[in-house]
């Protein structure tokens, strides 16, 4: 009986922990000739990542801007 309770408690904690990490922000940044995606737990970090990925693929003197951001 004690073992069953321990197993149930442990599985409940693991399920709650995995649900907390399920929420992620996904953002997309676009320029005239490239794009970038960013995923992170915070919207600000997802935006930064998307802009960085876009900037790496974009030619000089072109600007990237965030075109979409969704929590998922």
Give a written overview of the molecule.
- With 72 residues, the protein is of the alpha+beta class.
- Strands 2-1-3 form a 3-stranded antiparallel beta sheet.
- The model is unreliable at 4-8 (pLDDT under 50).
- The chain has a domain at 23-72.
- The protein contains 2 helices and 3 strands; from the N terminus they run H-E-E-H-E.
- The relative contact order is 0.21.
Structural Rg: 19 Å
Biggest sheet, open or closed, and with what strands and sense? 3 strands, antiparallel
Average pLDDT works out at 83
Distance between the amino and carboxyl termini: 39 Å
What is the strand arrangement across the widest sheet?
2-1-3
Q: Helicity level, as a percent range?
A: 40-55%
Count of individual beta strands: 3
Continuous helix count: 2
Rough outline? elongated
Q: How much of the sequence is in beta strands?
A: 25-35%
Q: SS-based structural class?
A: alpha+beta
Poorly predicted runs: 4-8
Order of helices and strands: HEEHE
Q: What key phrases describe this protein's structure?
A:
alpha+beta; 47% helix; 26% strand
Offer a concise description of the structure.
The chain is built from 2 helices and 3 strands.
């Amino acid at each position: 009986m004690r073992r069953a309770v321990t197993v149930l408690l442990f599985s409940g904690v693991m399920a709650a922990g995995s649900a907390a990490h399920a929420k992620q922000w996904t953002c997309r940044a676009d320029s005239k000739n490239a794009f970038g995606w960013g995923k992170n737990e915070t919207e600000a970090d997802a935006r930064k990542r998307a802009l960085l990925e876009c900037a790496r693929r974009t030619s000089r003197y072109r600007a990237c801007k965030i075109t979409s951001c969704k929590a998922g």
